[in-house]
Amino acid sequence: MSAAYATFGLAPAMRAGGVLADGGYRIHRDFVDFIVDGHPLLFQLSDLDAVSPLASDVPPAIFTAQVRSLLLESGAPLPGDRYVIYGCPECEDLACGAVTAVIEQDGDDYIWRDFAWQTADHADLELNGYHGIGPFRFHGTEYRAALGALLEDSGPAPGRRVLLIGARVALLARLAAALRTIGIGADIARDTEGVPAEELRGYGAVAFGPTAGEAERATVRRAFEQAGLEVPYVDGLAPIVPLLVAQVEHALDRSPLPQRRLTGLVAADGAAGIEISSPCRVRVTAYRLDLLSRPRTHELFDGVLEPGHHHIPLDGKAARGGSFVVARTSGSVLVEAVTR
Length: 340
Hints:
Blueprint lengths: L7 E8 L2 E2 L5 E2 L2 E8 L2 E2 L19 H11 L11 E5 L11 E9 L2 E10 L6 H4 L7 E3 L1 H13 L8 E5 L4 H12 L3 E5 L7 H4 L2 E6 L5 H13 L6 E3 L5 H12 L9 E7 L2 E6 L3 E10 L5 E11 L2 E6 L9 E6 L4 E5 L3
Parallel strand pairs: 10-11, 10-12, 12-13
Antiparallel strand pairs: 1-4, 2-3, 4-5, 6-7, 7-8, 8-9, 14-15, 15-18, 16-17, 16-19, 19-20
Helix pairs in contact: 1-3, 4-7
């Protein structure tokens, strides 16, 4: 079969979760994405909210089976030699829809072809095929090396946990509960005194509560440095749980900067400036505390944006000092304080 050679790689990615203004939530998922010719394959599939089968929260045995399946060491899970490339981030039900493709070998090469959106055992290529994507031919050595490295690492990277530092005040308890609800582990501690380095390695970020003083913060940073660990530190912008959740999700994002859809956010001069690298749905929300210290939420924008720079007007209240803007796509989150 003739097809142009493409490069194949893997990179960490996430499906951004979040606490929604209506009280609902979206599950956070960490996964490994497929990088074809230097770009995430997921970005070629319009604004698809999906994850690959190589997710960090699946059991190691299932993760290993998924990798070996992509290496064609086991039979295809769907008729017609079709494999799931991306599926529903909330469940594993094919009825929710999945991107599938035929994976086959041609000599030493691996070929991915006939991409389709599939909701039943058999794909209808004429009706639901992704006609502008693929086929991709990958060099066998490169393909096996990328997927084989996952097997050498003994399974998926563990799901990241967050360490919340401060007295066990109501705000940290609510934040921990919200993070756990969307699938992010969270622990609350006054400090890191006596915590072994091996335990600290389980945390992907540290968030300081309002009661954590400079001495406590310095001690925590020193403990992670002495353990040889580099983690992002989050200083809460305001005691608003959905805003703090967004800050934590941004801190946990391990995807390479060139492979993100949402690449920039500024909030100044009455507008939110957003930089997009590929077409995607973007939701922009403003948060602030009113005069009685009650959290207020303003939904500013929810729609699909094309690549480039965009200005989203801030309404009168959202444009005030003391407001904060959160921009979300299916795979990334950015947070900025409004400045004048």
